[in-house]
Amino acid sequence: MISFDNTELAFAYKTDKELRKAKFLFSLMGIGWLVKSGTRLTPWAIKNHFPINGIIRNTIFKQFVGGEALPETAKVADRLAQYNVQVILDYGVEGKEGEENFNHAADEFVKVIQYAATQPNITFMSIKLTGFARFGLLEKLDAAADNKSGVEGRINTDVLNAGEKEEWQRVVNRLIKICEAAQRNNVGVLVDAEETWIQDPVDALTMQMMEKYNATKVVVYNTIQLYRHDRLQFLKESLAEAQKKNFILGAKLVRGAYMEKERKRAAEKKYPSPIQPDKESTDKDYNAALEFCIEHLDKLFVIVASHNEYSNLYATQLLQQKNFPLNHSRVHFSQLLGMSDNITFNLAKAGCSVSKYLPFGPLKDVIPYLMRRAQENSSVSGQTGRELQLIKKELKRRGRK
After folding, report:
1. pTM above 0.90, yes or no
2. How far, in Å, CA of 227 to CA of 196, rounded?
3. Residues with Cβ < 8 Å from 195, sequence gap 6 or more?
4. CATH number of 96-305
5. Which of 69, 92, 103, 338 is the most exposed place for a label (fewest CB within 10 A)?
6. pLDDT digits (tens, 9 = 90+) for 14-40
7. Closest CA to 337 of 121, 53, 90
8. Mean per-residue pLDDT for 374-393?
9. Contacts of 105 (CB under 8 A, 6+ apart)
C-alpha cells in the first residue's frame, strides 16, 4: 500500500538548510495579503530594475525553477535520478509577442529536445503554443470555431485576412519543426492547455500533430483540464477521433490553472462559466478521466499530472485492479518541482514511472510562471498548509526545528 505520509522518503533529497528555506517560503505563501501584493509588485519592481533579483533567486526561483540555463537543469535532473524520478523540461518563457520572439522560442524548444535526447533521465518536454503564436490570432480563430472543430482537428482560417493566414502558417510550421525534432530524438512533447477563449485552435492543431506523429508511438500529448465541465466528454471524443483516424492518443490530465480568471471573464462578458461549479465536480471528473484512460490503455498513453493525493493513489489502485504493473509503459505520473514531494518520491519508491516538471529560463522571463505558482499555492485549498505540515513533520523527525 502506497502512503504519501512518509516524509523521510519525500525529502531524502533535501538538506536541512533547504528544508528550512522551504518552510520559510511556504509560511509566507500562507499569508494571503502578502501573496496578493507580492504578485502585483514583483513584475513591476523587476521591470523597473529594483534590486530584488537576489531575493527572488534565493527563494521562490530556487524552489520552483530548475535554473536559468539548460546546464543548470542537469544538476537537478541528476539529483532526482538518484531517486528514480525523471524530468519534464519546460522552457518557461511566457507572454512575449512578436515574430522574432516567436521564432526564438521555437528554436529554444528544439534545443531543449536535442538536449533532452542526450540525458537518460529526461523523456518529455512541455510547450505552450502562446510561446510562439500571437494571443490575438488564437483568439480570432477560436471565435470562429464550432464546438467540434477542436476535437476533429479542423481550423477555420477563412476568418483571417491574407497576412494573418501567413502568420498562422508560420505558427503551424514552428510546431511541425518542434514535433519533427521530438520524433527524431524520441522525446515526448506535452502541449499545455491555455485559456478557454483560445483553447479550440490549440486543441485542433494538437490533434493534427497527433495524427501526423502518433501513428506508431506517442510523440505529442494534449493537456485536458478537468476543472472545465466539458473536458471529460472532450477526452472521450478525442479517443474516438484517434481511433477513427488511426493514431494513438496522448493525454495529460490536469485539474487546471486559470479558474479565477475564467470565472471573472465569464461574469464580465455574461456567458456561462466553463468551469465546474465546485471542487467536488472537478475531482469527480478527474477521477472518471483516470478510469477512462486506464480502461483504454491499449489505445492511449496517459500522464497523471496531479497534486491531489487521492487521485494519484486512485490511479495506482486502478492499475492494480487490472493486474497491471505500477510502472506500466503507458502510464506516467508527474508533479511540479518544489511541490508535492511526498507524492512524487513515494510513487517512485513504489516503482511508478514519475517525473518532476522542471521549468527553466532567465529569471526575468520566468516571473509570470513564478507569480502563478505563488497565486496557486495561496488559492488551492489547503495546498500551502499541507506542504508546510509535511516539511515541519520531516524537520521534527530529523530532530531539527
Report:
1. yes
2. 11
3. 258, 261, 262, 265
4. 3.20.20.220
5. 69
6. 999 999 998 888 888 777 777 778 777
7. 90
8. 72
9. 91, 93, 96, 131, 132
- Alpha carbon dihedral 288, 289, 291, 296, in 10-degree steps, equals 150
**pLDDT (tens digit, 9 = 90+) per residue, 216-270?**
999 999 999 999 999 999 999 999 999 999 999 999 999 987 777 888 989 999 9
Q: Which cell is 209 given?
A: 500533430
Please choose, from the candidates 73, 207, 182, 46, the residue with its C-alpha nearest in 3D space to the C-alpha of residue 126: 182
Structural contact between residues 330 and 293, judged by C-beta atoms closer than 8 angstroms: no
Rounded Cα distance between 317 and 305, Å, is 16
The full length of the chain comes to: 401
Q: How far apart are CA 322 and CA 391, in angstroms?
A: 35
**What nine digits make up the cell of 76?**
537537478
